[in-house]
């Protein structure tokens, strides 16, 4: 029997948590390898979380090696090999952007410090809670001793949305769509890149051959999909966000499929002119727990302008959290 792999999940009593935990426990992350769960919540949500744990018990998952819950990040991150930072402060009516950054800044500075104090030496961190890129930036700046390459933010949901939409338009199964990239921020400024994607091995823009659809339909639909789900469901995407958080983590830990890349927001190493350290989405391949940015993709003037707009937004968020003393 192999050693259990410890996964810490924050915001575990929330919507995404409810869609995520059962999949983690049933083997969707690491197959038969036993998984131990450490679930962090704010004090008032611990009662609800107890119910979630009862249900986990009632599933009798053979590879679930234990579940702990609590509201102390240092205790819940103790020995974590993977931390899924899902819990965040949602924007409320009347809240300014700076209020949101301040509220999340408090959460992600504390959690960055707690990860540095108690997580396992090999910890990897994925931030799902919004604003995901900047929350990851705050966390890595406050996690002294953990290499910044171990921090990432989720843009896999945008990546999956883009693949699904392109596949539908092309009339092909999703598996035929490869080479998708999300550039920039997990926000409406993101740039989903059709021009480096392929359908059945053929450049996607040649397959589709409709710039109007790409510019005025595909790009805004992907970028605004989160808002569309909120408008339809009354709350933000949960099952698809949980699925993307697992796929992101699985590819990172076990490797991306041969010949394919995925999208992850990671601290920039300066590739494609993205300012060093900014947590921006790139095309990445992963192998044995490390990611590397796919180099040399052609970027047109149109694409560069879109990417620059998203980078401008990320730099604005970085400057705001710097001014607040969070990084
Ligand atoms: P939710 O409100 O249902 O759950 C969030 C949970 O986080 C709550 O139970 C809350 O008590 C908990 N929480 C708040 N502060 C915490 C803290 N300091 N420590 C631990 N737990 C804390 O929200 P949800 O639908 O599960 O979404 C969670 C986050 O994910 C939101 O920020 C949402 O915008 C974001 N999201 C991101 C993506 C993405 O693709 N990156 C997609 C969907 C949703
Ligand atoms: C999503 O992309 O579905 C979410 O990030 C939307 C949101 O604001 O929670």
Automatic annotation (TrEMBL):
Active site positions: 186 (proton acceptor)
InterPro entries given in the database record: L-lactate/malate_DH, Lactate/malate_DH_C, Lactate/malate_DH_N, Lactate_DH/Glyco_Ohase_4_C, Malate_DH_AS, Malate_DH_type2, NAD(P)-bd_dom_sf
Residues that, per the record, bind substrate: 91, 97, 130, 161
Ligand binding (NAD(+)): 11-17, 104, 111, 128-130
Molecular function via GO: L-malate dehydrogenase (NAD+) activity
A Pfam short name: Ldh_1_C
Reactions performed catalytically: (S)-malate + NAD(+) = oxaloacetate + NADH + H(+)
Domain of life (superkingdom): Bacteria
Entry's EC annotation: 1.1.1.37
Domain Lactate/malate dehydrogenase N-terminal: 7-150
Major enzyme class: oxidoreductase
Domain (Lactate/malate dehydrogenase C-terminal) ranges: 155-319
Swiss-Prot/TrEMBL keywords: NAD, Oxidoreductase, Tricarboxylic acid cycle
Protein's job: Catalyzes the reversible oxidation of malate to oxaloacetate.
Family: Belongs to the LDH/MDH superfamily. MDH type 2 family.
Name of the molecule in the record: Malate dehydrogenase
The organism of origin for this protein: Tessaracoccus lacteus
